[in-house]
Amino acid sequence: MKDVNGVSAGYYNPEICNLVDFIEIINQKMVDASVPYASEVVKNIPIYDISALQNVIANDKLRRELMAEWAWVLRESAGAIVLRNAYQDTSAIDEATKLYEQIISNEKQKSGGGADHFAAAGANDRIWNSLQKLCESSPDVFLRYFANTAIETACEAWLGPNYQMTAQVNLVHPGGSAQQAHRDYHLGFQTADISSSYPSHVHALSPVLTLQGAVAHCDMPVESGPTKLLPFSQTYLPGYAAWRREDFREVFEDKFVQLALNKGDALFFSPAIFHAAGANVSSDIHRMANLLQVSSAFGRAMETIDRTKMCSLVYPYAVKHFKEKTLTLGEIKAAIAATGEGYSFPTNLDSDPPTGGLAPETQQEFFMKALQNNMVEAEFENHLAEIDNKKTA
Fold this sequence. Notes:
Low-confidence stretches: none
Distance between the termini: 49 Å
Number of strands: 10
Structural class: alpha+beta
CATH architecture of the largest domain: Sandwich
CATH topology of the largest domain: Jelly Rolls
Radius of gyration: 21 Å
Oligomer: single chain
Order of helices and strands: HEEHHEHEHHHEHHEEHHEEEHHHH
Number of domains: 2
CATH superfamily of the largest domain: q2cbj1_9rhob like domain
Helix content: 25-40%
CATH class of the largest domain: Mainly Beta
Mean pLDDT: 93
Strand order of the largest sheet: 1-2-3-8-6-10-5-4
Number of helices: 15
Largest sheet: 8 strands, mixed
Shape: globular
């Protein structure tokens, strides 16, 4: 039995990967007419101007059309999308940047800072679990940062509802070296031997469990090293076995594309696309991106998040913005989706049986209900504790 790339089905290992097949795949061209919601296509990557798509995102029918287009691009076509002006007001980004810089400074004093998976030590400053750390530093900045319906729409387009948000900040200084070409979490974080032990259908499944994203915290011209991407490479099914081979990496270095990003832009891509952070050859640009790694409700996230604590921290600020109408309900929902647990399982069904449906109430559902019912903080926190206790009773 053969798969569509001409490789024997069953299991993949580096030896069976065919470079000729791979090159044929990456030599495709994106047709502008295939992405009607895009404002332009640059280097085979469709660009979407979010400032011109607000009415589309706000309309359920049109939003589904847009999400279907994005999902098609991520799975079957280029493998990446750029959302221009994802943040039309970048004040929350600026405030978050200052907080992240302080976190980096504090962590360096304590432990020397975080390492990187695919670059030499010292090339970057890294904040693991920037999601929770931003929330703990300033729940209000966190809320406004993730009150972003464009990001929510991109996540839902690939993963469906009830996704799990995690994030890691990457700061690459002038002179910072590039990463090696790779694929990402889940199988991309396994050794070659472990990756080859998973059957081929899991290689096809792994990319649809996670969405990779990056929010630009500064203007990123090409010389600052924005992400290098190899369009269409995510459609090469044995790619998790191939990306470590030097001949495939040489093709990547010969064929990759880079797109300049502006502060407030967002890039989303399939974790299976061959990609790598670029070298920062600028003299004065400290390239900061918040790397979003968003997981399907049907999988588990890479990081452990104290979402109960985050809900408690964010709730009073959500009440304030809800009452004063400084954020729309849709924007608050987007922030709640990054804060609370959106999936009911695993749980203890003896102590936490389904109520009013097939699954117990989630933190996100309770958060929104409490907000709409003007629940006081003490009662909100007590009920959050009850939800946790039921799951472990």
